[in-house]
Amino acid sequence: MKSASFKKLTVANSVFFDQVKEYLDGGKKVTIPVAGGSMRPFLRQGDKVVIKAIEPADMKLGRILLAYTPQGYVLHRLVRKTAKEVWLAGDANLQQLERIPKTALWAVVIEAYRGDKRKNPYALPTMLAAWLWYGARPLRRIIGKC
Fold first, then answer.
1. Are 68 and 88 in contact (CB under 8 A)?
2. Could you tell me which residues come within 8 angstroms of residue 82 by beta carbon, excluding any fewer than 6 positions away?
């Protein structure tokens, strides 16, 4: 039997995320590709993540969340929260933080894949490494200037 070949289809982010939002609002889980390098080293371009609609119980520090910000859609880690706002940061970002209302949060990552290999984004070693990596941002900025 001949295997099917597929062409890569590129659609505008707005069209793609409108469809993602529709599925999330319908209670479905959605698998999306990671685009960009802002979550390195924990998530990389081409990894895939499974997301579900966010609930208040999902807003735990360290969770990776999908949000719509004034700059566009981001998949970043929750690093601080108040009653009405959250701060998100990409693991690779040295300074940038998104300070947004909780209402801008769409989804939480529940699984991650690199190729066919499942990665638990919230395993204790991963979370410890992520917090150390985040805390080392000042040192990483200095080293980056050398």
1. no
2. none
Tokens 């609609």 belong to which residue? 53
Q: Count of alpha carbons within 13 Å of 106, Cβ hemisphere only?
A: 24
DSSP-derived secondary structure letter, 4? P
- Token couple for 74: 């981001």
Domains defined along the chain, listed by start: 13-145 (2.10.109.10)
User: 70-114: per-residue pLDDT in tens?
Assistant: 888 999 999 999 999 999 999 988 888 899 999 999 999 999 999
- Could you write out the three-class secondary structure of 28-63? CCEEEECCCCCCCCCCCCCCEEEEEECCHHHCCCCC
Distance (Å, rounded) from C-alpha 17 to C-alpha 37?
A: 19
pTM for the full model? 0.88
Q: What is the CA angle 81-23-85, rounded to 5?
A: 10
Q: Which amino acid is located at 107 in the chain?
A: A
